[in-house]
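In response to reviewer comment 3 from the previous cycle, which asked for concrete evidence that the modeling workflow produces usable outputs, we include below a single protein chain processed end to end. The sequence was submitted unchanged, and the resulting structure tokens are shown without manual editing.
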Amino acid sequence: MIKLGVFDLDGTLLNGEDRLPESFYQDVELLKSRNVNVAIASGRPAQFLFEMFDRDVDLLVSGEDGNIYFRGRKLLSARYVSNSLIDRVYRIVSTHDDLAMMCTGPEAAYVSPEDHRRFVQWGKGYFMPEICRTLPENAKICKVHVFCRDGLEAAKKAVSTVFADLKESCDVHETGYGWIGIMEKDSNKATAVRFFQEYLGVGNDETAVFGDSQNDVPMFRLTEHSYAMKNASEDVRCLAGHVTEFDNNHNGAMRTLLDLTSV
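The workflow returned the following structure tokens.
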């Protein structure tokens, strides 16, 4: 019996316009009536985790690919990267004109003036006013984000080339839309699922997970109830136990969980 549903956000729970399904809040309440908990496992920075919710809702939410946790808006736990990792990434990014870097944590997001200029030039300036431009020495950083100007395929290539030397000591993966996430080793969405399970007292066989990108694959490995979205790429779909019947523009993830828990 499924007692926990864990959803990625972008490309999974959110549609192509970055909006929740119209029936989302109603669906959450219906699942609660069936004793099913709903949790979010996203790669999004803490500052952008809740922007799609138009009301407070009692959900377990993880951002930064398993490095920060909330119940509602209350911070439960966070894991931070080292200053040495931040410095290593900065040295790499600063030598490539097609990359820009952002550091995020529970208190703020940070980007250098040069990278701020690049983000604006590349059409990512819509979130820049909310970001502090200087990284203080005592900042608590959960994740380093690198954006590839040339998009998803360039990000995939950069993971295995530009950032190849980091992969032995860090978790480096593309997270969709041209972004790369870089964290300390063993930080990923599987960590988030285990946190939710321990918090709720739920096992792998009682958990269903839903995602569409490479950073969702670690949580696919935890349970036989793993679902790649119909809109996911073939290399992601083949790593999940199942594929949803409907895509993210037709509420495919939530509809699947409702069907799984209807009996």
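The longest strand covers residues 170-176. We consider this sufficient to address the reviewer's concern, and the full set will be provided in the supplementary archive.
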